[in-house]
Amino acid sequence: LGDVYKRQTLTMMVPELRGMLAEMEKGAMKRAAMTWYQSAIDRQGRPVNLLPPTVDYPMELRLGDFHMSQNEFEKAEAVYKKGLAVRPNHLKTLKGYHQALVKLGRKDSAAVLEKRIKAVQR
After folding, report:
1. What residue ranges in the chain does DSSP mark as E strands?
2. In whole angstroms, what is the distance from residue 87 CA to residue 90 CA?
3. What is the spatial distance between Cα 55 and Cα 10, in angstroms, rounded to a whole number?
4. Which of 9, 17, 64, 106 has a CB 3.0–4.6 Å from the CB of 79, allowing a cystine?
5. What are the residues whose beta carbons fall under 8 Å from the beta carbon of 122, sequence distance 6 or more?
6. What is the dihedral of CA 62, 63, 66, 71, to 10 degrees?
7. CA-to-CA distance for 77 and 97, rounded, in angstroms?
8. CA distance 70 to 50
9. What is the pLDDT of residues 42-79, one digit of tens each?
């Protein structure tokens, strides 16, 4: 892969790693993880020229998981949904989205998504 491709990957992964470190903190420092994850999302870009994505998962997965850990289920649901626009069949993102729907009491939507998860797992 070209140097530009590698550089773009690193530019995305540095804020992701900073977000992961911030999540280990407490209080306001922990909340800073959201900003770092959003920065990684902004840098993630889209695959071009039929090259595979540089990272196997959408950065929205990290932010969605963070919101779930903070019991911010509506925010998590919205972020996971955006992540599925980037990687429609990413299993962990689908499962996170499903969990957010369950926590929000959206049983019908969760049931539909459960069928999609089973199809992807095959």
Report:
1. none
2. 6
3. 10
4. 64
5. none
6. -140
7. 6
8. 37
9. 988 765 555 666 788 999 999 999 999 999 999 999 99
